[in-house]
């Protein structure tokens, strides 16, 4: 407790010290820029498995061309996770980084606060918060790490190896906290793909008061599999009714007999809702002639409206070209009425697709044929700019509105 | 192919007793009209039927017992010269001048022609490293090559670690690797450039930006050709090297020929072992140092040869060789690997035949067959993974275990390879010659990994068959006064492949057949202004066909990409060479080159969400300058230095498949050194410590590599992924006794204990030491 107070004192002192300095001399070209909107971009290297990513703040999304000249580098495969004024940079999945970093927004600037050494080759791109605790799912080591995100210390490791089906790793990914329960989506891959003979979806439930596993629940009747993904923290989310929705991508759309769609765990329940099954395979995709196979990125905007970058396998060339094939089609997904409607936003390759809120509008990151950057979309009027409002150097990799 | 490495040679047991006094004969051969050094002159001692050839500087040396001999100096295009000399001193210098001839082609032996051809190849941008001065060195080939302008050797660790040769910024598969002209790129699991003992190497040729048509490989960035020694008829060589990190190297060879019967045989081999247990800082855990403890390397090679000069061919040559390698895998970034290892075994049979005046006068034939049976194994089946504190981290996290990646492996890849090479050289006259080269290869692979199949639930690898044919045709012109040389070459590439691919998604296996063909062309010329100054120019358009892995993937994570186009490289080189032999200033050599390259259709690995594959989407341009100076300042002091600046830039105008400007256009290509330099000083003196027949060589050299980024430069001040600047100093002492019969060498590398990295996040050893003892009977 003393340590915590001391830390808080230091933070407070640092805050006032910064404030005083800022009053005297507003820094020019502070690394990371200035504003409350965080933009991430990525540039892959020639080896295809490594690269660099950059984050920077901007004040608004008026038409502008961003460079990375003043951006802060972060690991290529890491995600940026907001919590209030804090931004956490996860260890990532490429194995090129073992640290989790914490930044804070202070005077509209990014200030690095702490870094925390994590296990080697553990991976981890999803982080959720419950009070002073944060839960990091380490996909490669079958653990849920419990972290005090104020002190950036690990308080517990929850091993979930025994819930692996076919191997000893259930591959935990995206999570959501409802009341005192943590719901962890489990990819259940063997090697790098889902088990073709197991078209099922698993969610692990952990009691956040004891940090013990309560149980694993399985949907085995809808043929939906591969719930959530490592780069989409919204692939398991909660609506206004506190119902939890789980996005399944059917082995990324290519496993015969597997279905892409959405499952639900109703408020107050700890089992899948057998009455709810939103199959993309059976749903016409308005404005798009091909079926959607899954959702790569999404944002839930309320009132049953989910905005997603739909993964459409039919848009792959043969053989696939991951740079040139625009396989992510932006859509409005009505999770209550189970409809799909294509939006008038250029489709992206696999290196874009990020979606988030901006005031009362929405932002879509796309690496399209003629545009590379972020489009601002008005969901009420359907209006969108003809070209990207904000262009970036590299692929549009992340977007966060810090409130 | 591989076996050429081991077919060594040397020394008859009967010669063990020959402790008789010997003469060290040295000298040079020059052109009578131009005073240029003549390379590749055949020098035969008639009485002993032994000999040598002159090197790139026209120099030679021979060790002979005291006595009276007749020396024959012969080379294509020159009149043969005989010299009778009575040798009764320890050291004699004999310089010879050769006059041009137009009628003596029939008199010249095949070997003499072959060596003489090197003169004309000088039109190409080439660096030649002769090993004469390094007979006792502790250094390996990488260390020697790394001190050459335009060349970098990128190594991931200690002895036996993966090594990439980089020539003018192009590296790996883009650079051909040859031993005596036989391509070895596809066999690097079995033989590494460093595996070849320096003792067995005559010279190393580095072709920059151009790959000679006489070589059979598909490369675009240049080529490294290691030329092995030709031994005298009686020769025994034995050496032992002890280096830091429990490294031991033993090499031995015996060669014996019976000139009157035309037979020659040899047997040799070498053994290398290292723990590679140097201390390193974990790249992902700054401040934490560990001693590498699972990086042992163990390699055994044995070979034998037999040749006859009486079986219709001028030379019929037959070799057998076997290789056994084990290499543990050191964890560096992720797990502390404790069990995974690679194994490589090879058994090779080679037959090479040479015939001069084949079918018609002036037409020389060399044809060669190689059969190799190879077995490569990759074992990664531990049920535990470990952290760097030595504790068990996880148990069977993957189905079936494994410490690396997300699936276990117990791979056994068995291959049957056959290579057939034909070279026909037709010398029309002193000015014109034509060369045709053909390399056909057939490879059949039988991969099996039952553990991986068990883990993934389906069979991932299938048999494959591949045929390839690479043909080259060259025309060479030399002006009457030999001042001007021009070589025009075209190459044709073809290959086809049959295999079975399995879809990562529906697990269905589908037979696949594909074929590719393409061509390349190059022209190189040289003009000698005067005996001291010459200029070179070359223009090349080369292609590299996609290899098996790029086209077919690995049956699992790397998806097939059968639509890949070949990489195409256009390169231009202009160079000047100046040499001056001055009694006051000593011998001075200066060389400078300027080059430009444009590489299209670069094959790059693209990571996807589902799997990964190779795609054509890169373009790169490169501009560079190299400079080198060598100066024999006095008869005991030698100074040298070189520097390379190579500016490789991304040249794509747009992002792949879009009209969006490429954000990295014009930026320096990441993970490529762009400025490096080497310099050295050497002191050498005979009988420095008194006595007779001794030579002492003391040297010091240093290498500098400027820091470079692992990623494209965006915000260099904050970008952490970088390969640090390094400045490394080495010192050494070599001492030979009894007229270069015994060599003793001591060497200290990286004496300043600098942080050295040549592959990102792969720390190399700090200060280290070596001791070598070598004994030669001849």
Overview of this structure, please?
The complex is a heterodimer of chains A (403) and B (778). Chain A has 403 residues and is mainly β. Helix content of chain A is 7%, strand content 43%. Chain A contains two helices and 32 strands. Chain A is globular, with a radius of gyration of 21 Å. Chain A starts with a helix and ends with a strand. Chain B has 778 residues and is mainly β. In chain B, 4% of the residues lie in helices and 55% in strands. Chain B has a 22-stranded antiparallel beta barrel. The radius of gyration of chain B is 26 Å and the shape is globular. The N terminus of chain B is likely disordered. The interface between A and B is large, with 67 and 65 residues.
Number of strands of chain B: 46
The overall average pLDDT of chain B, rounded, is 83
Estimate the mean pLDDT confidence of chain A: 89
Q: Tell me the strand order in the biggest sheet of chain A.
A: 3-31-30-29-28
Structural class call of chain A reads mainly beta
Regarding quaternary structure, how should these chains be classified?
heterodimer
How many runs of DSSP E, i.e. beta strands of chain A?
Answer: 32
Instruction: Report the β-strand fraction of chain B as a percent range.
Output: over 45%
């Amino acid at each position: 407790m003393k340590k915590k107070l001391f830390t808080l004192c230091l933070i407070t002192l640092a805050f006032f010290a910064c404030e005083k300095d800022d009053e005297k001399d507003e820094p020019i070209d502070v690394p990371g820029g200035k504003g409350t909107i965080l933009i991430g971009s990525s540039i892959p290297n020639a080896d295809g498995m490594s690269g660099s990513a950059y984050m920077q703040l901007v004040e608004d999304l008026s038409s502008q061309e961003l460079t990375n000249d003043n951006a802060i580098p972060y690991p290529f495969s890491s995600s940026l996770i907001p919590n209030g004024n804090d931004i956490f940079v996860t260890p990532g999945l490429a194995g090129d980084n073992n640290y989790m970093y914490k930044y804070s927004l202070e005077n509209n600037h990014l200030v690095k606060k702490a870094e925390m050494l994590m296990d080697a080759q553990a991976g981890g791109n999803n982080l959720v918060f419950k009070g002073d605790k944060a839960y990091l799912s380490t996909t490669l080591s079958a653990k849920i790490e419990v972290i005090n995100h104020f002190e950036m210390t690990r308080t517990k490791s929850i091993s979930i190896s025994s819930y692996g089906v076919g191997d000893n790793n259930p591959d935990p990914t995206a999570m959501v906290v409802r009341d005192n329960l943590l719901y962890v989506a489990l990819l259940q891959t063997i090697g790098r793909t889902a088990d073709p003979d197991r078209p099922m979806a698993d969610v692990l439930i952990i009691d956040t008061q004891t940090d013990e596993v309560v149980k694993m629940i399985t949907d085995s009747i809808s043929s939906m599999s591969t719930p959530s993904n490592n780069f989409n923290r919204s692939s398991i989310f909660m609506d206004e009714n506190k119902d939890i929705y789980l996005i399944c991508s059917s082995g990324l759309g290519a496993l015969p007999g597997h279905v892409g769609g959405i499952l639900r765990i109703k408020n107050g329940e700890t089992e899948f809702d057998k009455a709810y099954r939103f199959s993309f395979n059976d749903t016409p995709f308005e404005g798009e002639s091909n079926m959607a196979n899954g959702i790569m990125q999404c944002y839930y905007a309320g009132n049953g409206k989910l905005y997603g970058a739909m993964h459409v396998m039919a848009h792959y060339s043969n053989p696939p070209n991951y740079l040139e094939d625009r396989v992510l089609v932006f859509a409005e997904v009505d999770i209550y009425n189970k409809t799909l409607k294509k939006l008038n936003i250029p489709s992206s390759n696999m290196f874009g697709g990020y979606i988030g809120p901006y005031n009362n509008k929405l932002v879509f990151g796309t690496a399209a044929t003629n545009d590379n950057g972020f489009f601002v979309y008005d969901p009420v009027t359907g209006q969108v700019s003809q070209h990207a409002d904000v262009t970036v150097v590299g692929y549009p990799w992340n977007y966060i509105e810090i409130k | 192919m591989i076996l050429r490495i081991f077919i060594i040679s040397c020394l008859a047991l009967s010669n063990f007793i020959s402790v008789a006094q010997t003469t060290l004969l040295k000298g040079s051969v020059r052109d009578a009209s131009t005073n240029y050094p003549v390379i590749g002159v055949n020098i035969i001692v008639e009485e002993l039927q032994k000999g040598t050839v002159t090197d790139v500087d026209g120099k030679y040396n021979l060790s002979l017992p005291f006595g009276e001999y007749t020396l024959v100096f012969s080379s294509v295009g020159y009149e043969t010269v005989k010299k009778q000399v009575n040798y009764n001193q320890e050291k004699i210098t004999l310089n010879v001048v050769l006059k041009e001839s137009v009628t003596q082609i029939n008199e010249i032996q095949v070997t003499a022609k072959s060596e003489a051809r090197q003169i004309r190849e000088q039109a190409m941008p080439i660096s030649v490293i002769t090993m004469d001065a390094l007979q006792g060195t502790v250094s390996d080939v990488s260390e020697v090559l790394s001190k050459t302008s335009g060349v970098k050797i990128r190594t991931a660790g200690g002895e036996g670690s993966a090594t990439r040769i980089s020539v003018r910024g192009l590296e790996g598969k883009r650079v051909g690797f040859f031993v005596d002209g036989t391509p070895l790129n596809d066999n690097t699991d079995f033989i590494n450039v460093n595996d070849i003992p320096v003792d067995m190497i005559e010279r190393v040729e580095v072709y920059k930006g151009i790959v000679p048509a006489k070589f059979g490989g598909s490369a675009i960035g240049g080529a490294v050709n290691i030329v092995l020694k030709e031994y005298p008829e009686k020769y025994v060589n034995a050496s032992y090297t002890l280096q830091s990190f429990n490294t031991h190297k033993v090499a031995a060879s015996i060669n014996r020929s019976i000139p009157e019967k035309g037979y020659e045989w040899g047997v040799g081999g070498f053994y290398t072992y290292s723990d590679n247990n140097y201390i390193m800082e974990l790249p992902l855990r700054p401040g934490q140092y560990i001693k590498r403890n699972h990086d042992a390397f163990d390699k055994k090679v044995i070979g034998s040869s037999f040749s006859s000069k009486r079986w219709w061919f001028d030379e019929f040559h037959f070799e057998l060789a076997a290789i056994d390698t084990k290499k543990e895998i050191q964890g560096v970034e992720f797990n502390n690997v404790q069990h995974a290892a690679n194994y490589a075994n090879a058994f090779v049979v080679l037959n090479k035949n040479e015939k001069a005046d084949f079918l018609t006068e002036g037409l020389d034939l060399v044809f060669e067959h190689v059969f190799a049976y190879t077995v490569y194994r990759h074992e990664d089946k531990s049920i535990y993974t470990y952290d760097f504190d030595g504790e068990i981290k996880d148990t069977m996290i993957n189905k079936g275990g494994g410490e690396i990646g997300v699936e276990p492996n117990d791979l056994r890849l068995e291959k049957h390879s056959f290579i057939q090479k034909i070279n026909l050289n037709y010398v029309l006259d002193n000015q014109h010659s034509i060369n045709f080269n053909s390399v056909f290869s057939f490879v059949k692979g039988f991969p099996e990994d039952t553990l991986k199949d068990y883990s993934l639930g389906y069979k991932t690898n299938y048999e494959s068959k591949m045929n390839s044919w690479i043909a080259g045709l060259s025309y060479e012109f030399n002006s009457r006064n030999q001042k001007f040389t021009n070589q025009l070459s075209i190459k044709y590439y073809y290959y086809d492949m049959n295999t079975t691919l399995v879809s990562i998604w529906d697990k269905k296996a589908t037979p696949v057949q594909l074929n590719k063909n393409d061509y390349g062309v190059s022209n190189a010329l040289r003009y000698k202004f005067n005996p001291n100054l010459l200029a070179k120019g070359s223009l090349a358009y080369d292609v590299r066909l996609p290899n098996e892995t790029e086209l077919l993937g690995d049956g699992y994570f790397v998806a097939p990409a059968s639509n890949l186009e070949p990489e195409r490289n256009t390169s231009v080189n202009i160079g000047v060479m100046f040499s001056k032999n001055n009694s006051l200033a000593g011998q001075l050599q200066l060389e400078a080159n300027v080059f430009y390259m444009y590489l299209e259709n670069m094959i790059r690995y693209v990571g996807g969400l589902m799997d990964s594959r190779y795609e054509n989407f890169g373009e790169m341009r490169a501009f560079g300058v190299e400079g080198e100076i060598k100066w024999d300042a006095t008869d005991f002091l030698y100074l040298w230095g070189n520097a390379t600046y190579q500016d490789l830039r991304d040249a794509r105008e747009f992002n792949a498949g879009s009209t969006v400007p490429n954000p990295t256009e014009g930026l320096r290509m990441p993970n490529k050194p762009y400025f490096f330099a080497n310099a050295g000083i050497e002191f050498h003196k005979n009988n420095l410590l008194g006595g007779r027949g001794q030579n002492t060589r003391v040297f010091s050299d240093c290498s500098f590599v400027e820091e470079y980024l692992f990623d494209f430069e965006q915000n260099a001040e904050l970008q952490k992924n970088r390969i640090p600047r390094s400045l490394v100093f080495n010192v050494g002492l070599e001492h030979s006794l009894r007229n270069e019969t015994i060599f003793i060498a001591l060497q200290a590398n990286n004496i300043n204990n600098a942080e050295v990295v040549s592959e990102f996040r792969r720390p190399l050893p700090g200060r280290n030491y070596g001791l070598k003892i070598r004994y030669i009977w001849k």
